[in-house]
Amino acid sequence: MLEIKNIKAGYGKKVIIDNINFTMKPGQLTAILGLNGSGKTTLLKTMCGLIEAMEGNVLLGQKDLIPLDEKQMARNISYMPQRHSIVYDIKVIDLVLMGITPYLSIFQSPNKEHMKKAYKCLEIVNMEGYSERNFLHLSGGQQQLVVLARSLMQNSEIMLFDEPVSALDFKNKHLVLDNIKDILQKHGKFGMVSLHDPNLALSYCNKIIIIHKGRIYSKFFINEINGDNLKEIFSELYGEISIIKHKEKYVIIR
């Protein structure tokens, strides 16, 4: 089990999130929802060590990940940001190979076994046919799948995704989330994704955590809640809404 315990974090002396507590199970995808500025990205960056926690623990079993150095943290947690930072020409396969970096020494390079694993990661996201292509020449959705393959190459138990579909069209939003959910289930990894669209969370996630003004406002498993409860919870964030059920899933309409 993964336990986030009493996390408090921010920038400088300014506290952004406080008293954050929840647990996650392997093979499941947990969504973080909240309005802009609520602390979603701050939470994810704190969990993976990009922001230093003021207080609290990230416990993987009995092991606290907070004190780990950057390389050790990367072996346990992968983080996929809202937008990739690749602005130079690079082949797809070489980008995926970057995921092995936390396991290499300073003067060590990827070997043939690493290359085989990188191709396998591309196969998992159905991008093996693009291995020799220039990453910058791919569509937005294809690029996100390649970055997902790089995260898979990292072989961490915990995978964090910060608004991975915010810049994608309708088809590619579902393509990327389908792949994320499938990977978590097949490989038994812990997954957390921040989203703006609650309907995507209701469609793809097992659990939803709502952050409001830096604190957890609500958390629930989707299969344990009904439409009336959802309307009460989400009305506090989004105002007047309606809840309908379509193909056994709830949909929020405003």
Give structural notes.
This protein is α/β, with parallel strands linked by helices. It contains eight helices and twelve strands. The protein has a six-stranded mixed β-sheet with strand order 6-7-8-3-9-10, with helices on both faces. Strand 4 and strand 5 form a beta hairpin. Helix 5 runs parallel beside helix 6. The radius of gyration is 18 Å and the shape is globular. The relative contact order is 0.17. The model has no long low-confidence stretch (mean pLDDT 93).
How big is the Rg? 18 Å
Strand order of the largest sheet: 6-7-8-3-9-10
Distance between the termini: 36 Å
Please work out how many helical segments DSSP would assign.
Answer: 8
Q: Which spans of ≥5 residues are poorly predicted at pLDDT below 50?
A: none
Largest sheet: 6 strands, mixed
Question: What are the salient characteristics of this protein?
Answer:
8 helices; single chain; 254 residues; six-stranded mixed sheet; 28% strand; alpha/beta; four-stranded antiparallel sheet; globular
Quick structural overview:
The chain is α/β, with parallel strands linked by helices and 254 residues long. It has helices at 40-47, 70-76, 92-97, 112-124, 140-153, 170-187, 198-204, 227-238, and strands at residues 2-11, 14-24, 29-33, 55-60, 63-64, 77-80, 158-162, 190-194, 207-212, 215-221, 242-246, 249-253.
